[in-house]
Amino acid sequence: xxxxxVIPDSFKECLSSEDVCSIVENVVNMFVSDAEVINxxxxxxxxxxxxxxxxxxxxxxxxxxxRNPMGTVVxxxxxxxxxxxxxxxxxxxxxxxxVAAAERNPMLASSYGTGQLMMDAFHNGITDFIIALGGxxxxxxxxxxxxxxxxxxxxxxxxxLEPLPCNLDKISYIDSKDVDAGWQKCNIQVLCDxxxxxxxxxxxxxxxxKQKGADEIMAEQLEAGLHNLATVLKKQYKADVKTIKGxxxxxxxxxxxxxxxxxxxxxxxxxxxxxxxxxxxxxxxSLIITGEGIIDEQTLHGKVPFSVAEHAKAKNVPVIFxxxxxxxxxxxxxxxxxxxxxxxxxxxxxxxxxxxxxxxxLPKAVRLALFKWMGITK
Length: 378
Prior knowledge:
Elements: E1 2-6, H1 17-31, E2 35-39, H2 49-57, E3 59-67, E4 73-81, E5 85-89, H3 90-94, H4 112-123, E6 128-132, H5 143-149, E7 152-154, E8 173-175, E9 187-192, H6 204-208, H7 216-237, H8 253-260, E10 264-267, H9 268-276, H10 278-282, E11 287-295, H11 304-314, E12 319-326, H12 330-335, E13 338-343, H13 351-356, H14 358-377
Parallel strand pairs: 1-2, 1-11, 5-6, 6-9, 9-10, 11-12, 12-13
Antiparallel strand pairs: 3-4, 4-5, 7-8
Helix pairs in contact: 1-14, 2-9, 4-5
């Protein structure tokens, strides 16, 4: 038997990681007669992270009414492990998928709902937190989240500011007098889906602002606001927030939690690969199949396919990439241990068409990549 481990992230907006596993397994069983397929749904610190952790560590979910990024009250769930740790996805309360494309406004989008989830867990006696940052609609530097915990923000005239991203450039002082002292005893682990810093060309706004709805003018103001926030944090907390890898994740929530709440930042994919025991699975594996919606340069900054490929390459296990779209060169893929790859999107197909037809085209992509691998291994 040839052990084939299927360990994909979700294909955003169309397939969960469980869906991808099921499709890949069906194709593998059709064309590899001696296959033993091991399905391992995974995430990178974005959507699906809580399910991965609860499925592997045990626990349950709790649903709470919170504000979505634009202030509408919605139901959002978070996980509670058997060891009583809260597993909170920013995407659940402050996610991009909660806001219609036409309504996205990163000048007003708030992470307040994520803070509400944290407060609910805190009020129920939980002191251990795992916060997954991927999939956010916000670029507020964590202002909303912090406001939900009790932090206040003042301008240079000592006027109280609304905790909105449009006010980032006005902040002069962060007041913590109303924050429960019990937070100082909490252990907060933050899972970053990217390693981007807070500001600059590789920062939160420059890389992710457009997908959250920022035009050029908005992007300039948001970037200036994050620079100002970094200045205030350095003055009050004596830390250079601009250099923190992952500080730009979720529009700056990574930096805010690290500096203000003493949270530890981890790359989400690595954290979750450890939880599912991926390295042990590699010991007798013949092939690894992984992927996500889009595999591009951003994938190389801590996304699931790259982390999976790195671990597999260290143990000389070949890897197949399947995705909606792949923009990395064959040479780049080969350099990280990928022996075959295929995408569902065709040259004349729009992104919308690719998403709507992914269940038809993903099996074909998997089959093509498998045939390439079998040609290599024969």
